[in-house]
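Thread amino acids onto this structure.
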């Protein structure tokens, strides 16, 4: 039994036939012929289009890849939130980096192609908040509702940045006077970014109060007169002598001589009430002679 090895140069031809002439070693000149068909598979490669980054939402993204063999290319998701549809499109239910692999397994004529991967990123959607302005209020006004919407249609939350107010859901209750700033926020979710906060400010004005000051009857200069003024706020009234012969202690007017005394009632207000507009009354202090008509 004899064995011999031959080096075959296919010269880039894919199907080659080789014929061997075999002579017996006993000198027999008879020729034996043997013929083989040698087969070599072709190599192939894949051209896979790059995949652009995108924002979450919208239509599925088509995949485009071709093999140099013209054999069909298959796609698989290597990583990331995606799936491949029957139409070779990427369906993206989430956000993040996604890697897709294009493959061609070959056949009787072609070797498998080297896999080609493409990676792209799906970004979260942007959103914005529209927050209605808030008109100025007066202390004592009823609780009121806020109105703000996010372009994503996700619910908006509210918080008090500063000022005398409290919030329950979207209802504001005024707790004092001054400037109040309310913030509207939307934190986003797996597919939507957090919206930029939007602030709205308004002023809670002090309540208005009014004074009622009873007239002061003429009295002898030796008399002490009780003054009677009230504020609609219920706050204490302050009395002062604007002009004339008299002094005031608390709410009592004491004459110091005959004549006219102008008394002013005022209420300076507090953290809730604005100062009242002052009210004056004129008192007449009489001597004994005036009283007797002398």
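Threaded sequence (294 positions):
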């Amino acid at each position: 039994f004899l064995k011999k090895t031959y080096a075959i140069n296919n010269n880039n031809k894919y199907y080659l036939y080789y014929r061997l002439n075999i002579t017996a070693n006993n000198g027999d000149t008879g020729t034996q012929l043997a013929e083989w068909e040698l087969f070599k598979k072709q190599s192939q490669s894949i051209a896979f289009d790059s995949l652009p980054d995108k924002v979450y939402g919208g239509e599925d993204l088509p995949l485009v890849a071709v093999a140099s063999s013209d054999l069909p290319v298959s796609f698989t998701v290597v990583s990331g939130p995606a799936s491949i549809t029957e139409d070779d499109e990427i369906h993206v239910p989430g956000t993040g980096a996604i890697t897709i692999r294009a493959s061609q397994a070959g056949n009787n004529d072609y070797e498998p192609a080297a896999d080609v991967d493409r990676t792209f990123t799906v970004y979260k959607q942007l959103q914005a908040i529209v927050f209605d302005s808030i008109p100025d209020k007066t202390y004592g006004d009823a609780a009121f509702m806020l109105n703000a919407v996010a372009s994503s249609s996700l619910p908006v939350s509210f918080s008090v940045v500063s000022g005398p107010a409290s919030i329950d859901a979207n209802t504001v209750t005024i707790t004092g006077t001054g400037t109040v700033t309310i913030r509207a926020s939307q934190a986003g979710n797996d597919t939507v970014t957090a919206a930029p906060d939007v602030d709205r400010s308004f002023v809670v004005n002090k309540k208005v109060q009014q004074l009622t000051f009873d007239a002061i009857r003429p009295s002898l200069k030796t008399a002490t007169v009780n003054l009677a003024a009230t504020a609609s706020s219920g706050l204490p009234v302050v009395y002062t002598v604007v002009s004339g012969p008299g002094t005031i202690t608390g709410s009592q007017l004491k004459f110091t001589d005959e004549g006219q005394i102008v008394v002013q009632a005022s209420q300076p207000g507090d953290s809730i009430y604005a100062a009242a507009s002052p009210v004056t009354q004129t008192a007449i202090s009489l001597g004994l002679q005036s009283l007797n008509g002398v």
